[in-house]
Amino acid sequence: MAGRPKFRKDMELLEELPSDMIVSMFEAGKSQTMICYELGIGRRALEQWIEDADPNIIARARAKAADKLAVETMTIADSMADTNPQRDVQRIRTRQWLAERWDQKTYGLQKAQQVNINIQDLRMAALRHVEVVDDLSTEKGQ
User: Fold this and answer.
1) In sequence order, which residues have a C-beta less than 8 Å from that of residue 22 and are 6 or more positions away?
2) Which end of the chain is less congested by CB atoms within 10 angstroms, N or C?
3) pLDDT for 136
């Protein structure tokens, strides 16, 4: 890491800080950029810290943040102002979008298998099958 004194300094700072503090920042819904700014570190150092930490730690923190956003959407919806409802609707949509991204399993849209049935194709296949069976049965009878 020679030639990267800022990165080394940032990594030392991250190692000194309690990991719970950094994780709680993610749980609060803060972006990586905001966390870097508040801690005074570079983005690459934070990304390296995330890679070195438990791989599921950030996913769990984001899931908690998604839960918080879901609760916020209910609060916003319950207290919608009559003067500017579009603003509140946009705030709800933004939180829903983030919750879907941070916890796809819980808040994401479930994609089901799509099945297309063409009745005409089924009918034609059945008629062809009947013709083949008729041809086979007439050949055996001869």
Assistant:
1) 14, 35, 39, 49
2) C
3) 60
